[in-house]
Amino acid sequence: SPILAIETTCDETACAILSPEGAILAETVHTQSGHAALGGVVPEIAARAHLALLPDIVAETLEKSGLALAEIGAFAACTGPGLIGGLIVGSNYAKGLAVALDRPFLAVNHIEAHALTARLPGLFAHDIKFPYLLLLVSGGHCQCIAVKGIGNYEKLGGTIDDAAGEAFDKVAKMLGLGWPGGPALEKLAREGRSDAVALPRPLMGREGCDFSFSGLKTAVARQIAPYGMEALPRPVAADIAASFQRCVCDVMADRARHALALLPEAQSLVVAGGVAANGAIRTALEALAGEAGIPFVAPPLRFCTDNAVMVGWAALETIRACQGAGQALEDGIPTAPRPRWPLTEMVPPGNAM
Ligand code: ATP
Ligand code: MG
Ligand code: FE
């Protein structure tokens, strides 16, 4: 029977219902609008909004699916990592439904959900096989992950300061663009020349595949300072935006190249997270995958950003892997909300303590 999944880790309140095979029966994603005016996600406001929105979002999703609540066979929600308030609201809502209907509840790791999205049935003509390299680049995350199997992940590298999306947002803010800044910055960059402004490419060429963006951000600030944000001529802003974006592309391709060297058996290069919406970054990574002779896999944008379909799919993958390993679901993952929950703490089904 179908599974109902909930996502509330940040500022998306989302619900999805999937068939046991992973077909999407219904889906709703609500991006909370109040945060833009405040220049970023305010955790307490987000949590209260999740609480207010969830009953309607779940009801709306059930209605779209044509199913009655009693026909749902399992419930899933992210219990981490993320903002604690949202985690508590979303996971307790799903747990409450599971207890009321006497169905299993599955605690899903939000990063694992991003990591497994590429395997959603029907997205690509070919199966995405293990192991693959995942580049997770969003507002809160910037990591190179070796995806070796369900519950089996190795972090090859990550950011030592800002996440990629955070860097886009901060630079966009300095350029006087709104929040979230990524899309606006990409648009402005089209008017500029990417070789106009000399900017650093942090950690490029260095061993491993860690990221750093704070030096780049500071260098951008130094370029803007002589003008002041209000008096920044648009052509200058466009040149800075284009040059910044070029740097991020170069750094990402370089870091991904190093990550592939650490995972030579990678079957494909998969990108996820909101920053994967960026056309220039997609092009740079596609070229790199071509060089390495492996497919470049970029899920459609609505599955790159936060959504509940990926949560339901990760839960289904976990259920199937548990069945395959002869492990009971309740012997699996602890269900208490965990603001920090690194993928490296996941345990592959069959290996539970
Ligand atoms: P999490 O890390 O928990 O998923 P999040 O909700 O911030 O957090 P997403 O919703 O996946 O992450 O992505 C949002 C981020 O993606 C923002 O930082 C935004 O600026 C960035 N982004 C979106 N579109 C683009 C784009 N075209 N170019 C660059 N960055 C972009
Ligand atoms: Mg978001
Ligand atoms: Fe996310």
In short:
The chain contains 10 helices and 10 strands. With 353 residues, it is of the alpha/beta class. Fe (iii) ion (FE) binds at residues 110, 114, 138, 306.
How many β-strand stretches? 10
Helical/strand content category: alpha/beta
Radius of gyration: 21 Å
Q: N-to-C SSE series?
A: EEEHEHEHEEEHHHHEHEHH
Mean pLDDT: 95
Strand content range = 15-25%
Q: What is the rounded distance between the termini?
A: 29 Å
- Which strand order spans the largest sheet, edge to edge or round the barrel? 3-2-1-4-5
State the helix count.
10
Give a short account of the largest sheet.
Answer: 5 strands, mixed
Unreliable stretches: none
How does the overall form come out from the CA principal axes? globular
Helicity, in percent?
Answer: 40-55%
Bound ions, cofactors and other small molecules, one mention each: adenosine-5'-triphosphate, magnesium ion, fe (iii) ion
